Structure to design on (155 residues):
C-alpha cells in the first residue's frame, strides 16, 4: 500500500515538474536566424523558434513611422536566414493641374485627350489654378469626376 502511494506521488510529481514543462517546450530545438532591415529604427538579426511568424520577429524591432506593415504577410512562418525588409509607405504622386503635360493629365480617371486639352487651355488663358476645386470650371469635369480625381491632383 505504501509502495502504491509512493508511486502515485512520484507520478503526480513528475507530471507537474518544471523539468517536464521545459521538455514539452522543446527548448533544445534548433533556432532559425532572421534579419530585419529597412524601415526600422535599428536593423537586427534575431534567433527564433522555427514555428515563429513574421509577426513574432517584428516584436524585436521598432518600425519607423514610414514603415508599411500592410505589405507583409504577418502570419507567414519564418525560415532560416530569412530577410524581412520593411518597405516605406507608398506616397501617391499627384498630378499638377498647373504644370502636367497632356499625357500626364490623361492618367487621371476619366480625363481623356479632349479634357486634358481643356485643362491646358484654361491655364494658358486664365492662368494657373488657385485651388484644385477650380478644375470644376472645365467643361466635362463635374462633381462626380472631381471626387474620383481630387486625391490624385495638386496645384
Amino acid at each position: 500500500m505504501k509502495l502504491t502511494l509512493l508511486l502515485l506521488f512520484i507520478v503526480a510529481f513528475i507530471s507537474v515538474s518544471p523539468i517536464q514543462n521545459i521538455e514539452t517546450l522543446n527548448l533544445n530545438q534548433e533556432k532559425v536566424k532572421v534579419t530585419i532591415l529597412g524601415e526600422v529604427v535599428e536593423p537586427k538579426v534575431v534567433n527564433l523558434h522555427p514555428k515563429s511568424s513574421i509577426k513574432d520577429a517584428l516584436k524585436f524591432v521598432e518600425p519607423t513611422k514610414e514603415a508599411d506593415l500592410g505589405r507583409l504577410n504577418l502570419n507567414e512562418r519564418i525560415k532560416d536566414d530569412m530577410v524581412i525588409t520593411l518597405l516605406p509607405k507608398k506616397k501617391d504622386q499627384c498630378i499638377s493641374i498647373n504644370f502636367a503635360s497632356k499625357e500626364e493629365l490623361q492618367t487621371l480617371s476619366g480625363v481623356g485627350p479632349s479634357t486634358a486639352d481643356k485643362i491646358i487651355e484654361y491655364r494658358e488663358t486664365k492662368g494657373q489654378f488657385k485651388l484644385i476645386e477650380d478644375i470644376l470650371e472645365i467643361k466635362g469635369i463635374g462633381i462626380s469626376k472631381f471626387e474620383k480625381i481630387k486625391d490624385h491632383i495638386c496645384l
In short: Helices lie at 2-16, 18-25, 54-57, 102-105, 113-126, 143-149. The first helix runs from residue 2 to 16. Residues 3 and 9 are 10 Å apart (CA to CA).
